[in-house]
Design goal:
alpha+beta, two-stranded antiparallel sheet, about 220 residues, 4 helices
C-alpha cells in the first residue's frame, strides 16, 4: 500500500493534535487545583490519579478529534481501562469550532452504564462485537434508539468543565525526519478495520456493516 507524503503530514498532524489535547486536559485539571500523577505499576498510558484535598480519583484521560470515544469490551460488563477508573476526562475538538477544545469530566459509573447499553443494543441488532475491539459512542449526539450506534451517546452533554483554545498545529518539512515521525507515532494507536469502517459509515451515512474494505499489499 502506497504511503504518500500527504498521508505522512496528516498522520503527524493528528498525533500532534492528540498530544496537545491530552496536555490541555492535564493543564485544565491542574488549573482547577487537581494534582495529576501517574500511577506506579499501571502500564496504561491514559490512566492518572487526580487529587485535590481529601478527594482522590483514578481517571482515564481520553482524547478525540472526531467527537467519538471508544472502550473495548472484555465480557461480563467489563471494559478495558473503563472498568478500573472512577472518572473519565475526555478532551474533544469542538465540533462547532475546530480552534477550540472541550474538556469533560464524566463519572465512570455513568460511562460504564452507557457502554453496557450500547453493547447490548448493538448485539441485539446483530452487530459483530469481538472482545477487545473498541465500541464507539458519540459525545454530543443525544442518547437515542435510532440509529443503534447512538444508544448510550451524549456523555459530553452537561459534563463540560472547560473550553480551551486549540492552538493551530503546524507541521513543517523540517519536523518530518524519520526519527521525529517515529517518536511522534511511537505510542499512537494503529487504525483498525473497524475504526476505518466507522469513519466511512459516518461520512456516507450508512451502517458500518455495509462498508467493505479491501487491503492490497
Amino acid at each position: 500500500m502506497e504511503n504518500t507524503s500527504e498521508d505522512t503530514f496528516d498522520n503527524t498532524k493528528r498525533t500532534l493534535i492528540r498530544r496537545r489535547l491530552f496536555q490541555i486536559g492535564v493543564e485544565t485539571l491542574e488549573g482547577d487545583g487537581w494534582t495529576v500523577e501517574r500511577i506506579p505499576k499501571i502500564g496504561k498510558g491514559s490512566v492518572r490519579r487526580i487529587t485535590k484535598g481529601k478527594k482522590s480519583y483514578i481517571t482515564s484521560i481520553r482524547t478525540t478529534q472526531d467527537t467519538w470515544i471508544a472502550f473495548p469490551p472484555e465480557g461480563n460488563k467489563q471494559w478495558t481501562t473503563l472498568s478500573d477508573v472512577d472518572k473519565v476526562i475526555v478532551i474533544s475538538v469542538d465540533p462547532d469550532n475546530s480552534e477550540l477544545a472541550r474538556v469533560h469530566m464524566i463519572e465512570g459509573d455513568d460511562l460504564r452504564e452507557r457502554f453496557d447499553r450500547a453493547f447490548a443494543a448493538r448485539r441485539a441488532a446483530g452487530y459483530s462485537l469481538p472482545m477487545g475491539q473498541g465500541i464507539w459512542l458519540p459525545l454530543y449526539e443525544p442518547d437515542a434508539e435510532n440509529p443503534v450506534t447512538h444508544v448510550g451517546g451524549g456523555a459530553g452533554i452537561g459534563t463540560e468543565i472547560a473550553r480551551v483554545p486549540l492552538e493551530q498545529v503546524q507541521v513543517s518539512d523540517k519536523q518530518l525526519t524519520a526519527s521525529k515521525i517515529n517518536e511522534l507515532n511511537a505510542d499512537d494507536e494503529t487504525l483498525t478495520i473497524s475504526e476505518a469502517k466507522r469513519r466511512l459509515a459516518m461520512t456516507f451515512g450508512v451502517d458500518p456493516s455495509n462498508i467493505k474494505i479491501t487491503v492490497e499489499g
